[in-house]
Structures are given as structure tokens and as C-alpha cells.
Amino acid sequence: MIELRFLVDNKNTVCFTLFVALVLSVYLLVYLFSHTPRPPYPEELKYTAIDENGVEVTRTLPTLGKEHQNGDDEEIILSVVIPSYNETGRILLMLTDAIKFLKEKYGSKWEIVIVDDGSTDNTTQYCLKICKEQFQLDYRQFRIIKFSQNRGKGGAVRQGFLHIRGKYGLFADADGASKFSDVAKLIEAIKTYETSGTNGKTVKPVVAIGSRAHMVNTEAVIKRSMIRNCLMYGFHTLVFIFGIRSIKDTQCGFKLFNRPAILKIFPYLHTEGWIFDVEILILAIRKRIQIEEIPISWHEVDGSKMALAVDSIKMAKDLVVIRMAYLLGIYNDNKKC
Ligand SMILES: Nc1nc2c(ncn2[C@@H]2O[C@H](COP(=O)(O)OP(=O)(O)O)[C@@H](O)[C@H]2O)c(=O)[nH]1
Ligand SMILES: [Mg+2]
Q1: Which positions are tagged coiled coil (predicted)?
Q2: Is 47 found in the same domain as 22?
């Protein structure tokens, strides 16, 4: 009898030890794969632009929340952050569309911040040239942050958002896949929900994300390669399993935030790769920030920078890491990165 008891106790101890070892290994693994954005190099805290005299200048970037401290204090309604990696071939069309809309809608109360993520095709010089010669814009409307080393789309968008001045901030892809004027729909959606209180003044954090979910059976999606569509469905399933169930299109590169939402999300964002959109949404959900998904126009543009196989595997891995890191407390949504 005593021997039997000893065996059972021993079995329980072994099971318990195995369980603890498993939890520790998972923790260690997630910890090892978790990500902290690298601190910006000094040159990444500056922007390049054209001054009033048509001369190229490099100046210190304003800091989110403290932008009035360095005299950068014009009223800006909409800031547009464009992550750009080797975009000399695609960005002109996007900028033409965006600038036309911004001028008509907001006069001079807008800015574009291009984040050149270590391009090797002179994206910065190309953008400065068209900004000066084609659009005649100066530093009040058009700024470029140049990274000396590639960080990934998430890292570029994060760095851009930490240095904008607008009441609203949009990030949009450089390929012009979305119709820029659809930003008006996103702003309307945010305006509907952001004020609260009887005086209608308290501004709540709200996010409006462009969505292509209504296009699933349209030619724009069917025209994409079968492999890309398969990977897209696989990815959506994984996103669903790992916790985002209320949002149909997490990956659309056209998302708008009001200022309270920007302050609650971007300083806390860890992910610098393609999957950063999912972390933005996880943070918004955890912080009970309202998210509105708005159907927008979208078309496939050639020249994608995604390496389908490698980037898909990386995205799947990063998705699991983000989810687990929040679950295990490795990522803390109240600690700035
Ligand atoms: N910052 C940064 N942006 C990138 C990188 N790769 C792509 N992008 C930008 O992300 C946006 C979407 O890229 P794209 O290649 O069109 O991706 P797809 O539409 O998902 O196929 C574009 O504005 C790109 O310039 C990168 O490594 N770093
Ligand atoms: Mg694209």
C-alpha cells in the first residue's frame, strides 16, 4: 500500500515538474523571439525637407505631444505617414492623388511624412525632387525621415507617428493601392464617435481602419495569384484563432487614428515587421479603444515588396509571439517601448 502511494506521489511530482518545465520553456522561447524596437539613431530624429527658399534642409523632428516646443506649431488637421522602401517607381501616383485631395479638403492644414526605410534606390532624393519641382511644397507640408538601416514597415510607421503634428494620423501605402479620398470616410467614422459628454468636447480614442473584406469575391482579389490568396486565407484563420475575431481585414495599409488613440498605441508598439497591424489592433482591443472597420476602394498594384514564402512564415511566427507575449506579460501594454 505504502509502495503504491509512493508511486502515485512520484507520478504527480514528475507530471508537475514536466508542466513547470514546459511553461518555463514556452516563456523562454517567447521571450527570446519577442521584439523591442531598436532606439532611433540620431539621424532618425531629424527630417529632411525643402525650405521657403527652395533649399534642402535637415531639422529636428517635433515630438508627439511636445510639438509646440520647437516652434513647429501650425495647426495640422491630418498627418499622413507613408512607409517607403525602394518606392521611386510607385510613389508619384500615390502622392499626386493624396496631395490633390489634401489641398482641396484641408488647404494647408495637413502634412505628409515619408519614412524612407533604408531604401537603396534614392527614394529620399527622388521624393525631395518631386516635392520641389512638381508639387512646390515646403517643410510645412512635406517631410522625409531617412533611416540608415532598414527596420521594416511597422518600425517605419511607428517612427513616423511618434513625430507627427496632426489631430488625425493616417498611414497609407506608397503604392496607391487605396483611393486616397476614402480617408474622408474614415474621418467621418471617427468624428461620429470621438466626442462624448454633454458638452460634446471630451475626445475619446477611436481608430478607423480601411477594409477590403467586401471585395473578397471581386476581381481585385480573384486576380491575385492562387498562392497569395491561399496564404491570405491561412493567415486570416491564424489571426482568428489567435484572438482577433471582430475584425475582418487586419492587414489593409490604410488606417486612421485620432490623437488620443495615437498616444495610447504607438509609443507601446513592439513589432517592426509586417505583422505590426495586428499588434496595433490587439493594443486597441486591450485598451478598449473603439475600432471602426470601413469598406474602402482598393486595387492590386504590381511591385509588392513582400517575399511571399519567407515573409508569410515570419508573419505567422510573429503573430504567435505577439499573442503569447501579451498573455505571459512579456509585453506590457502600459509600458512604453
Ligand atoms: N518601411 C518599410 N516599408 C516597407 C517595407 N517593405 C515594404 N514597405 C512599404 O509598405 C507598403 C506596402 O508594401 P507592398 O510591397 O505594396 O506590400 P503589399 O501591398 O502587402 O504587397 C509600401 O508603402 C512599401 O514601401 C520595408 O521593409 N520597410
Ligand atoms: Mg501593395
Answers
A1: none
A2: no
β-sheet bridge partners, residue 167: none
Q: How confident is the model at residue 74 (pLDDT cuts 50, 70, 90)?
A: confident
- 111 and 171 share one domain: yes
pLDDT at 240: 87
Range of the domain at 198: 42-327
Cell of 173: 501605402
Assign 262 a pLDDT band (cuts: 50, 70, 90): very high
Residue 311 Cα to ligand 2 middle (Å): 14
Q: Which residues approach ligand 1 with their CB closer than 6 A?
A: 83-85, 87, 115, 117, 150, 152-153, 156, 173-175, 177, 253, 304-306
Position 337 in a domain? no
Task: Say if strands 202-203 and 56-60 run parallel, antiparallel, or are unpaired.
Answer: unpaired
Sign, CA dihedral 36-324-277-108, equals: negative
- Say yes or no: 240 and 112 in one domain: yes
Per-residue burial over 106-128, b if 16 or more Cβ lie within 10 Å, else e, is beebbbbbbbbbbbeeebbebbb
